[in-house]
Design goal:
This protein is an alpha/beta fold and 428 residues long. The chain contains 13 helices and 14 strands. The protein is 39% helix and 21% strand. Strand 3, helix 3 and strand 4 form a beta-alpha-beta unit.
Length: 428
């Protein structure tokens, strides 16, 4: 059912330049995607258009050129560096007599190859099912359809309808299983919150060096390679930060330009680690000429998963690929670290990273002394739920004196939820 690649397939690559920035794709990145999928590149058919052709996506003349290239190179798959509609895929396949795969399906296939955990496999399958549900008709054109009239009546349910029903049932089953995984993740997060262990999450464009940095910081052996989407399944490790204590570091899947929406939706459970983190370490390949565009794409995905308001520390990685760049910490006007320049691969600037991290996490924690009157027992209960009370005693009037320690983000959320009345009980 799925358009899964076999290693060693011979592919014709198709790339178009569009004046519209939202439709433009990067050819070099596309070639890395093709290589990551284990497909051999034969040649690239490129061109320029103002808007996609409704029938072939490319113009009819360019479509004939692709068909000739398929025959000339004896290719068995055509890879488009763009997202195609089901009808465009069908029309190009009919013209070229060759299988057509668009950018979205290619990324889904890479994810399917890299998934290792049970959760990761379920998430990828759900994304594939969502994507392929609109393309089922291509696989069943040879089967009968419902028709009216004597001698033309088909069965009560066509094969296409049967397949759609089975597909819906499978998607429902996967969602239920992913919900169970999410419950387990929530239990783990609650346990970490009770233990007052903050979580920091590595985010960034794919192949920015997140897993290499993760391995250096945690002495782990997470798979790291110079390829797109080397990391798919999230990994959590505990590290010690001087002045802060134990911290959970999460390595997550890398983002990419025009990341398929089905993938973002399917991986929301995994990306919750990012949304609930105290601090995001935004890893940037500073040697990449497209670093500014990559940063914009990461910010776009963070907004989509509702993690754009989480504080960030930018990690300018791979400075060993540049000349005359030394490890350093950049600070804002208040002296707060906002960027760290380092090289995870060359082990440069790691001590500066820990220094900046200690400063940022130290400022993320607030300490307050509260004087709560007897009629505010509910507020005291809310504080106990957050497991943030470090000391408690009562005076002769029945007032509860509390010392609380909690992340600044949690404190601001509490102030907002309590309509600011909690601030009136803070002892100065």
């Amino acid at each position: 059912m799925f358009d899964r690649f076999q290693a060693g397939e011979q592919a014709i690559l198709v790339h178009l330049d569009f004046p519209d920035e939202t439709s433009r794709e990067d050819l070099a990145e596309f070639k890395m995607l093709v290589s990551s999928a284990g497909v051999n590149e034969l040649t690239v058919v490129s061109g320029k258009r103002n808007t996609p052709h409704p029938k072939y996506f490319v113009g009819s003349g360019k479509a004939d050129e692709i068909a000739e290239a398929v025959k000339l190179y004896d290719a068995n798959v055509i890879l488009f560096n763009h997202s195609l509609t089901p009808s465009q895929e069908k029309n190009i396949e009919a013209l070229c007599q060759c299988r057509v795969v668009d950018r979205t399906t290619l990324i889904l296939d890479i994810f399917a190859q890299r998934a290792r955990t049970h959760e990761g496999k379920l998430q990828v399958e759900l994304a594939q099912l969502r994507h392929i549900s609109s393309r089922l008709i291509r696989g069943w054109t040879h089967l009968e359809r419902q028709k009216g009239g004597i001698g033309l009546r088909g069965p009560g349910e066509t094969q296409l309808e049967t397949d759609r029903r089975l597909l819906r049932e499978r998607m429902i089953n996967i969602r239920k299983r992913l919900e169970k995984v999410e419950v387990q993740r929530q239990q783990g997060r609650r346990a970490r919150n009770r233990a007052e262990i903050p979580t920091i999450s590595l985010v960034g464009y794919t192949n920015a060096g997140k897993s290499t940095l993760f391995n250096v910081l945690t002495q782990a052996e997470v798979y790291a390679a110079d390829q797109l989407f080397a990391t798919l399944d999230p990994t959590l490790r505990r590290i010690e930060i001087e002045g802060v204590g134990r911290v959970i570091l999460a390595d997550t899947v890398g983002f990419i330009r025009h990341l398929p929406h089905d993938l973002v939706a399917a991986f929301k459970a995994t990306l919750t680690e990012t949304r609930e983190a105290e601090l995001l370490l935004h890893v940037v390949d500073i040697s990449d000429e497209s670093r500014n565009e990559n940063i914009e794409q990461v910010e776009h995905v963070l907004k989509e998963i509702e993690a754009n308001e989480v504080p960030q520390l930018v990690i300018c990685n791979k400075i060993d690929n540049l000349d005359d760049i030394e490890p350093r910490i950049d600070r804002d006007e208040h002296g707060t670290p906002i960027r760290v320049w380092l090289s995870a691969r060359a082990n440069l600037g790691i001590e500066l990273f820990f220094e900046a991290l200690a400063e940022r996490l130290g400022k993320q924690v607030v300490n307050h002394q509260l004087n709560i009157p007897p009629n505010e027992g509910k507020l005291r209960g809310e504080l106990y739920k957050l497991n943030c009370i470090t000391k408690e005693h009562y005076d002769e009037q029945g007032h509860c004196h509390l010392e609380v320690k909690l992340p600044k983000r949690e404190w601001n959320r509490l102030v907002k939820n309590e309509a600011n009345r909690i601030e009136t009980y803070v002892e100065l």
